[in-house]
């Protein structure tokens, strides 16, 4: 007597189609499982090496280990040799920097309202007012400069018909100028550096 079978779903139909009959007397064996993947060991090895390097550098106080060479003797008993001391170099005094003597001169009968002149061979100036003439100023400037300006700007005072100016460097006149008239102005300058004359 056969019993009616319940309706089968698509999954059950699929299983019945692909079920293989088992030979009699053999137990059911499921499909073999794929082999398990082995865990990679190299990241652990690299990590262990890095850990050893960090621990050894911390133990050395952050210093790299020193290389030792063996000459057949026990390296534990050899004392480190101190570096040979070299005699201290003899300090020589630098020769005094050579200087140039610059003389500014302004002359005339009477006074100058103002006299302005460079003091450092570059841009620093000084001004004197209501100066009785003749007037002069001596400065020292270093030698060896490529650009070194010497300048005088002078204006005659009331009642001074003529005013003259002169720049002397190491006893040699490098520039002269003259101006006439009420409140006359004389302006002279020169580059006495190595790029000058």
Please provide a written account of the structure.
There is one protein chain. With 197 residues, the chain is of the alpha+beta class. It has helices at residues 10-18, 42-59, and strands spanning 99-108, 111-118, 125-132, 135-142, 149-156, 162-169, 172-180, 185-191.
List keywords for this structure.
single chain, 197 residues, alpha+beta, 4-stranded antiparallel beta sheet, 8 strands, 14% helix, elongated
Structure at a glance:
The protein is an alpha+beta fold and 197 residues long.
Count of helices? 2
Q: Approximately how much helix is present in the residues?
A: 10-25%
How does the major sheet shape up?
4 strands, antiparallel
**Extended strand count:** 8
Kindly report the oligomeric state of this protein.
single chain
What general form does the structure show? elongated
- What string, H for helix and E for strand, traces the elements in order? HHEEEEEEEE
Question: How much strand?
Answer: 25-35%
Task: Give the mean pLDDT.
Answer: 77
Uncertain segments are: none
Rg over CA atoms, rounded to whole Å, is: 52 Å
Q: Strand arrangement, largest sheet?
A: 4-1-6-7
Structural class: alpha+beta
Distance between the termini: 137 Å
